[in-house]
Design goal:
The complex is a heterotrimer of chains A (227), B (194) and C (212). Chain A has one domain. With 227 residues, chain A is mainly α. Helix content of chain C is 83%, strand content 0%. The longest helix of chain C has 30 residues. Classes of the chains: A mainly alpha (227), B alpha/beta (194), C mainly alpha (212).
């Protein structure tokens, strides 16, 4: 029991250190962008969060696959927690992306931002995941349905991305463009630190939430055993 | 043929079946008794493979096509006729000499006259008899019967008695009933659920 | 192969069911025409071809939803789906048979919708027909699986549109794109890719949706 505690604490500590380091580097050390100035620094937060969200959904889908393969019920909780984290990071992506759009172009939303549009579609998709889970009784059935849906989700990510690119040809022409950062060495370094920080945050939150949920389940089992 | 170890099943927060261990060998007849809500139907559904256990395990040594399962519901389409329903199951179970087998069963259970009627117009007793046809259609080696007598009048009950008498010894049976007196003489094992 | 014999047996059953009840297909036909008429009133008079094409695709999507909502109602009553799941046939055969049925209904609805669209709005080119046919495959494949999921839940009809719409956004993009852009090849290819990916995924995972 104490070993597990140690790991969670270590993970949280590592994530905290990385986060502080990453933010500090992003705000103070990273070179200023020629075009956008100071506001470009949101990129160091926005993109790592987005990539972490993808990682969450991917991890959730992997656990879902394991569930369907081995039929062991513990993977259901792991998959659900990962998707849950993914939605949280997804919301953060939408929020930081919106802030960035407001700062850059003065609008809170623009369809020309492919990442943002993709996240909106995924956000809708995974919200439906929660509706699915709420409307089915807990048990092997719900675990199976959630797992299948999570797998569809990761298939949807590349397909949607392709669709959004294709859609640009006939939807109102792109008004705002932003050059993908041609990252210099130091920019790339800061980006990597921030990415590691966000992934560390995911790992830490994931471990904690999973432990909490497992404790809840165990508590329920014990209560029933006493009845 | 059927082995259960530590078998448990819960629905949401309610444990319907807890920690069951039993074994049913080929040719045996297991009688499952218990009040309403004690999990008889759940146990049979677990044996049929319709439900997965939430604790423990259950092993049935037969492929799906050799198992016959009689549920509370008839598992037939109300908009189709009796014949069409049995035709469908006959095809899905790859029954040899489908027409003859269906005809014989309909005759035996007194449904031949109404074979072209929509099942939706059937009485509860007729639906139950049709369900029995469906269960026996593919000549299964394992019969799982959940309340086989429910909804039946006296003459139909004797049909079920015949089925049980014929099958006992030759096939493996699990019968859940809360009127066990008919079945007890034939039972080789009994399981009482709380 | 017995697999296709099973699919045929199940498809035959679905055809029989629809012939008896005769409710789903007429409803879909009426709905799609009504929707097109409503769209006429909701579009400004100088609306572009893209706008009216877009609305056609929306009409088709919601017609599909209407049909899919009914796809498993017969099985849900009396829990007949359990009977099918217990049969020795591969569970994906159930999916394939249902999808073919949904496909047929969609096709018939479009056989009415496209001429109506040509009458009310714009002439219909081969690209639109090709796009519609390709889109149907994807909609039927994914929709059938999601309909089975929704049927297993408490929320049922409420849940199906929520599950369905995000997944079919790429279909709308492919369909509208193929119709309005000069070179429809890429969009038709994209639709075919969508169909392939999601048909395979649906076929492989249907087992887990209907059985525990």
């Amino acid at each position: 029991m104490s070993l597990r505690n140690n790991r969670a604490v270590l993970l949280a500590a590592a994530a905290s250190v990385l986060l502080v380091a990453g933010l500090a580097l992003a705000l103070f050390w990273a070179p200023e962008d020629a075009d956008q100035g100071f506001s470009q620094r949101i990129f160091y937060v926005h993109v790592p969060i987005a990539l972490t969200a993808y990682a969450c959904f991917g991890w959730g889908a992997w656990k879902a696959l394991r569930l369907l393969w081995t039929r062991e019920s513990r993977y259901d909780l792991e998959s659900y927690t990962a998707v849950h984290m993914g939605v949280i990071f997804g919301i953060l992506t939408l929020v930081t992306g919106s802030i960035w759009a407001k700062i850059s172009w003065g609008v809170w939303w623009t369809w020309s931002e492919r990442q943002l549009t993709l996240f909106l579609v995924l956000f809708l998709f995974y919200c439906a995941y929660f509706m699915l889970r709420f409307s089915v009784e807990s048990g092997p059935r719900r675990a199976n349905l959630s797992a299948v849906y999570a797998l569809f989700g990761v298939a949807l990510i590349p397909v949607s991305f392709l669709a959004i690119r294709l859609a640009e040809n006939f939807i109102h022409p792109v008004v705002f463009t932003r050059d993908g950062p041609q990252m210099s060495g130091s920019m790339f370094f800061v980006f990597c630190v921030c990415l590691a920080a966000m992934l560390g945050l995911f790992a830490s939150l994931y471990t904690n939430e999973l432990t909490g949920k497992r404790l809840d389940a165990r508590l329920r089992e014990l209560r029933e055993a006493l009845e | 043929m059927i082995q259960a170890r530590g078998l448990g099943r819960r629905f949401a927060s309610k444990r319907v079946i807890r920690d069951l261990d039993f074994e049913v060998r080929a040719g045996e007849l297991l009688l499952v008794t218990g009040p309403n809500g004690s999990g008889k139907s759940t146990l049979l559904a677990l044996m049929a493979g319709l439900l997965a256990p939430t604790e423990g395990e259950i092993e049935v040594d037969l492929p799906r096509g050799r198992i016959g399962y009689l549920a509370h519901e008839a598992l037939v389409y109300k908009e189709l006729t009796a014949l069409e329903n049995l035709e469908l199951y006959g095809r899905l179970y790859h029954v040899a000499e489908r027409r003859e087998t269906i005809g014989a069963l309909l005759e035996r259970f007194g449904l031949w006259e109404v074979r072209h009627q929509r099942v939706g117009s059937f009485s509860r007793g007729m639906q139950q008899r049709l369900a029995l046809c469906r269960v026996l259609l593919h000549g299964p080696e394992l019969l799982l019967l959940d309340e086989p007598y429910s909804g039946l009048d006296a003459s139909a009950r004797s049909l079920v008695d015949d089925v049980l008498a014929e099958a006992a010894g030759a096939k493996t049976l699990v019968v859940a009933s809360h009127e066990p007196e008919h079945v007890r003489p034939l039972a080789t094992q009994a399981l009482a659920l709380a | 192969m017995t697999y296709f014999a099973d699919v045929a047996a199940l498809a035959r059953k679905d055809i029989l069911l629809e012939l008896r009840s005769r409710d789903t297909l007429p409803a879909m036909l009426l709905f799609v025409v009504s929707a097109l008429v409503v769209f006429h009133f909701s579009l400004p008079s100088d609306a572009s071809a893209t706008a009216s094409t877009g609305l056609l695709w929306i009409a088709l999507l919601f017609t599909a939803l209407l049909g899919l909502g009914r796809a498993f109602t017969a099985e849900r009553e009396q829990r007949v789906l359990d009977g099918l799941v217990l049969a020795p046939c591969d569970r994906s055969a159930i999916w394939l048979a249902k999808s073919l049925g949904v496909l047929a209904f969609l096709g018939m609805a479009e056989a009415l919708a496209l001429p109506a669209y040509a009458l009310f709005f714009e002439p219909v080119g081969w690209e639109l027909v090709a796009a519609v046919l390709l889109a149907d495959l994807g909609l039927a494949a994914v929709g059938t699986l999601l309909a089975a999921m929704a049927a297993a839940s408490r929320a049922r009809e409420l849940l199906l549109p929520l599950l369905f719409l995000p997944l079919v956004i790429p279909v709308v993009v492919g369909g509208v794109g193929a119709t309005v852009v000069d070179n429809p090849g890429r969009y038709l290819g994209f639709l075919a890719l969508y169909d392939l990916i999601f048909a395979i995924l649906s076929w492989a995972s249907f087992e887990y949706v209907v059985a525990e």
